[in-house]
Amino acid sequence: MSSNSMTRQGRVANRGTLSTTEKVGWAISGLLIAFLLVDGIMKLFKAETSIEGTIDLGYPESTVIWIGLTLVVCTVLYAIPRTAVLGAILLTGYFGGATATAARLEDPWLLFPIGIGVLVWVGLALRDAGSRTFLEQNLVRR
Description:
Structural class: mainly alpha
Strand content: under 5%
Mean pLDDT: 90
């Protein structure tokens, strides 16, 4: 048996178990996914708090559903392993807009969307070895 086929078999055998790093990544991502889906769905159903919050931020009520739909779609893409990188990129843009809105209003919660955006990438990097390798190669100086 060649070492190449043994490596493939080892990978297949390990697919069912997650490392501690992957478990932590999924825990972080899972909490974010739950939080973001609740927020997006509340906007889709035009919950009173979502409408009030959106208007307080200076956006018209007519944008609530579109903002909610955008958040739900980006979050679902982030939750699916095959499209998680695309979802993370789109969520980064979403939270960039939230950060810009908070900065414009001089909101003391300015760091909240920045922190959520960072956690999106931390969760992805911990749960996905390919993303982790890419980020290490491109962001970490050796």
